[in-house]
Amino acid sequence: MDKAPSAPEPAPPSDPDLHWTGWALQMLREAAEIDLRAKRMTAQQQSVTLAGPQAPDFALMQSRLSRSLRLSIAMTERIRTEYLMRKGEREGSGEQERRRRRREQAAEAATRLAAAPGEGWSVEHTRSAVWEKLVEDEILDVQLDTLSPEEFVREVCRRIGRPPAPPWPPQGREEDAGDEAGLAGADSVAADSGEGWGEGWAEPPEESGPSRLPSPDSS
To answer: What angle do CA 70, 75, 76 make, to 5 degrees?
Structure first.
């Protein structure tokens, strides 16, 4: 009897820094292509326009388009160089591996906390939504280093539209039983992985205060 084909494994998440770098390079590539098309159209228009005092200043137009094109090329090289430098620094310090482990732990914790097959949120669908947010959301990428593990898992769930209940307990009441029960999935992931939540995570700040990057109200 033939076995039903198993569901494909989810693609490994890309580096958020690489994701942003690729987006920025694509934007610059499109800007350069627009400038190049404009230069060609300007040259064609100049070839069919009679010279005279009312004629457009084609030389000035071409000069400005050339400058814009040179700036796009220079910025492209700068972004590529800076990304390679950041990548080398992360690999040399071990930061990249630590952040990868933290991101994987948080993804599994958020998936267990937010999944609800009876409500249309299967484990596979939830895991896909979580990884999409982790890869594409630049604010979450920063908060991976600034929030505690439990706070980060809550924030991921909130951003995919599945906030745990209660989503944000009052300050000073983090130890409430309801909150502890809601984060049981997060703790079990850390235990299953063999690494405590403290592995690679920054210590929470001693003084309470607003986050460096306040989260937007909308997910």
So the answer is: 100
How high is the pLDDT of residue 210? 39
* Nearest Cα residue to 188 out of 108, 116, 127: 108
Q: What are phi and psi of 121, to 5 degrees?
A: -110, 80
pLDDT tens-digit readout, 17-28: 888 888 999 999
Half-sphere exposure of 148 toward its Cβ, with a 13 Å CA cutoff? 11
147, β-bridge pairs? none
Give the other-Cβ count within 10 Å of 198's Cβ. 11
Q: Is the pTM of this model over 0.85?
A: no
Q: What is the pLDDT of residue 8?
A: 47
pLDDT at 48: 87
Q: Which H or E run contains 104?
A: helix 95-114
Instruction: Describe the crossing of helices 123-136 and 138-146 by its angle, rounded to 10 degrees.
Output: 90
In the predicted model, residues of the chain with pLDDT beneath 70 are 1-14, 165-219
What Rg, from alpha-carbon coordinates, does the chain have? 25
Angle at 112 between CA 102 and CA 128, to 5 degrees: 75
The pair of three-digit structure tokens given for residue 40, joined into one six-digit string: 């060609």
Which are the contacts of 66, defined by CB distance < 8 A and separation ≥ 6? 39
What is the three-class DSSP state of 89? Answer: helix
Helix H or strand E segment including 91:
helix 58-93
At 213 the pLDDT is 37
- Token code pair at residue 95: 């930061």
